[in-house]
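Weekly puzzle thread! Below is a chain. First person to post its structure in token form gets bragging rights.
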Amino acid sequence: MASAAHAQLAGGSGPITGYHGNPSECTSCHFSNPAAFTATANITGPVSVLHGQLSSTFSLSGTGGTRRGFNIAIYRVSGNVKQTTAFSNLSAGINTPTSNELQHTVAESRTSWSFRWTAPATLGSYRVYACVNPVNNDGNDGALDGNAACDTYNFSVTNQNPNALNDFNIITVAEDSGLSGTFNVLTNDVQTQGDAFSWDSTNTAGLSGSLQDNSNGTYRFNPNGQFESLDSGEFGSTTFTYTIEENAYAGYTDTATVTLRVSGANDAPVAAQDGAVGAGNGHVTVNEGAVANNVGNLLANDSDVDVESLTSSRAGPGCAAVSPGEASAFTLNTDGTFNYTHDGSEPLQDSFSYCAYDGTAYSAARTVYIDIAPVNDPPTISGFAGSVGFTEQTPVVIDNSISFSDVDSSQINRARLTISANYAAGDTLACGALPAGIACGSFDVPSRSLTLSGVASYADYYSAIGAVSFNSTSDNPSLSARTVDLDVRDEDLGTSLDAQKTVTITRSNDPPTLAPIANQVALENTGADPYTFTYTAVASDVDVDDDINNGAGSLSYSLSGAPVGMTVSNASPTHGRISWNPPQTGVFGQVYGPISVLIEDGDEDVSAPSSVNFNVTVSPPDGDGDLVANYNDLCLTVADATNADNDGDGTPGSDGGANDGGDVCDLDDDNDDMPDSYEIANFFDPFDPADGAPTADADGDGIPNDIEFLNGSNPRFADELIDSTGYLTPHELQPPSPSAVHPMATTAVASDYGPYRPGRHIITWTGANSINPSLGTSDQTLDIQPLVNFAADQLAEEGSAVTVNITLNGDAVSWPTTAVTVDYSVSGSAANPADHDALPSVVTFNDQVYQQSIVFNVAADGLTDPDESVVFTIDRVNNAAIGSSNSHRVTIVEANVAPQASLEFDQGGPLLAAVYDGDNGGNVNIAVNATDLNAGQSLSYDWSGSDNSLVPPGNTATWNLVGVSAGNYLIDVAVTDDGTPARSTRVSRILNVLAGASAALGAADSDNDGRNDNDPLEGYGDDDDDGIPNYLDANSNGGSESNLIPDQTVDMSNSVLLQTDPGLRITRGKTAQAANNFGTLLTDSEIAQFGSASGTAPLNAADSSQHIAGIYDFEVSGLVPRASARVVIPLLSGIPRNAVYRKFNPATGWSDFVIDANNGIASAVGALGACPEPGSSAYRSGLNYLDSCIELRIQDGGPNDTDNSVNGIVTDPGTIGVQLSDPQAFEVEEGGGRMSPTMLAVLLLLSFMAIRRRGNGGMTD
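Winning reply:
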């Protein structure tokens, strides 16, 4: 729509100008009194019109002065050429048409008109101009002035492509026809809009055969031998495409496909040659005189281009021209095989001819050649028969009277003898003398054969085989007769049948033998150490049953050269056992021998019995190996060649007990009731009884040295017992005198200067001097008692069971032998038993138990009472110390109390601090863990405060995010009960989605808790749901450690723990979550980037104060509504002068911490990350110069609670700030790598103070 001031081209092409006083575009346009004339006009019509065609309808509509008159003209945009083609189909009211313009000059009431227009031949963009004009006598005539109310409409004049039609089987030619006649593909193509066209191009890609292109739409085609596989009655085809183009309109084309048809014809098959002339070149080989059936497969190499089934035949012209001349029988099978029987004649080759036949045509004849293989006659054996006898151990010649005969050979190539029956281990065959030209192999056990080889005469092989002998190397051969086979092979490789000879077996007697006896070692036989030397000789007799020539039968042993008393037994079951009791001489290494053992079986074949010799070396018994005989040794258990006895109380041959042996095994050589080992370790003289006297007290602690031994304490150092002050306790060790560690030491250095966890610590002091840095060590015991605290106060309703938790902050010194006991009393405004059943009692903490519970019941009295209280107070503890939370208040309420809630995330496994879009398909489970003190109430859930991009659900406690992508998302839920009145709690948390999949964790121990990162108890899970993954959280077991959280986990060696009251839970805050910091510590830039309530950049991150320490972002939950939480922060640097605690609120920015009755700040001296526990009396009000521990007290819903809600949760991003003239001083930078000169000075001062606090523990003057 265009205004009277100026018009816009359709499509926003710009204003139309030139209408004022310019009738070339809109003639008869005249205006008067433009201020009184108003009108609008609008043109619509077709998007395009084909050239030479009548358009569809154009329409003009408008308001106001439109009905008084208008002019319409059409221009070609290129060159702004006004069109003269005809308008038609004019609607009523267009009453003055001209040759090139429409006019309406008579006023009427209608406001819309239409027309059609015939498009010219020129293609392109065109524009309709319409201008509204007041007509004469309208009462507004006057000077010809004013501006037309105009509109334009753009459209185009277009063209269509010609229509090329496919030509299917335009011609049919025979496969061998050659070049076809001319054919025209354009005759069926169609003009569009009467536009003439011509051939443009041809595409023969994929064409089989060849094409003659005349470049005018006519062609000739030649199959060119590419359709030979077609058989008679079969047809094939091939295609090409061509393109036509309109003559007047370049680029308007169309493409069609032409299909050419080819008819097939039968082709004769081709038979290939099978074999060639000359022996050895035949297609097949038939043995002399043999029958060969179904051989040849002559068609395997024959072919038919028509791919028809072939048969073999001798019926065609010339196919039987050659017939086999050496066959007694011959037939040709149709499958290409033939049957051939050789007539036994000598020629080495035969032949015949055949043709391949496809059912219609025969191939040319081919000749098949057959090789004839001559056949050898094997030799025969005579004379190798009968039997020969073999006597044990005496080889026997098998046969020397053999002969051969062979009709076609006079020489032998090989002879083989085989034990074919009853072979036994040890049997063998061996050659004798061999004639020249014959070689003999070794007897082959697997085949049990002996082979002679080499071409030689019969006579030479008679001689060689006649010298072959049989033997058995067994001393007890089997009596079964052996069968020996002989076969021979002639020079033409013909092998004879086997001839056989039998070998009978006769055994003979074998003498027995003795196994060698190594030299022996023995001990003297004494009264205190009785000893008998024994050794059993081992004899063997291959005549197992000794049933051949065995004389008396059994084996007999005897000795020669034996010492007095040595005997050998010939009786069962000790047959062959040598026995002897060596005499006591006191000589080490006394040798007896050589001693001979003899054996005989009663019918030896040798002149003397078999024997073996050995020696026996005898020494006194010496249990400790010190070359002192046991019967003379004052200490049998420890080697001491001197056999010294300082106090003279030793007994030779003693058991080495205290006061009963020599020095090396007398546990107390000076009899002062302190063991020698204890005296040596503590630099006493083990030979001086004075250091065990009742008045001897080396460390001056009032405990005599011998009593310190009984107590297990160090007599040189005074042990210490102190109470812990918090999770870690700093303590200045009292260093010992260096000489107490080692006499030559001038300094003593401790193994651990703290701070310390509760429990027993063994401090090892190392003595050193300028020459030796490690002269020796000595241990000192430091015992630190744990603190006992109640958990934070709580609410209860009538009729409920209440659990009160009480905790230890570490190990008890008395564990595991003695438990920690806690006596407590019960008081308060509620009465027992009317209101509750709690009674005073004792709580016991056994070894490794850090949290215990007191359970009592609140009565439901049915009365409306004001709030009442039950107060538990710690009265006395054993083996521990009372902490600052020494009482617990349970408030009994009857009013409706708001529910408590927390948010949890997981990806199908454990709870997570952060999630990954590459884990679990990017799916995340979100749950609210909500509880309500008031029993029986239903809870509803409102997630609408969550990030809208997640499409929060309705009233449900859990929901699932599918395929969430990387980024930070606010998860917010309001939990409402249905009590009277209804109460709500709102909690929120940042869902931090990291890109990619979580990386596999390795064997490192990142949090130094003794478990590898990939341990099942570690990993990415967040068991205590504090925002720190287990593998970075050494305090991840919840319970008694839920009140602890690290400040950072990037550098675990410098990580410190924030602490809140026992029983409360501390987690990282939302900004730390959004920044993906697995700790509470933030930088200024992270506040600027993630500090808003939704984890994005806030509007007010700048602060007028300079921040000199980290920004701590935490959240504490588990409070009674409107109660205050105490949080202790170990600082990385000391508090400067004039410091203030600054807080960040996403809504209001930075401000000072507000101090009132329920909110406060205190500080205390700390050491190396160790601070007094929350509530300790060590804290002083305010931020005190150079203190390094801060205690914040923040009220739920109070002015310092950033979540601005009374929900049992406090949140507090905050830091220490100062006002400085240097704007860069103390500013926290990314990574903590930069600091101002002022900050450096403060840190140097703190370091100096830390060294002073360690004090003289590292060195003495």
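Puzzle host: Confirmed. Bonus trivia for everyone else. Confidence is low (pLDDT under 50) at residues 1-37, 136-146, 545-552, 1222-1261.
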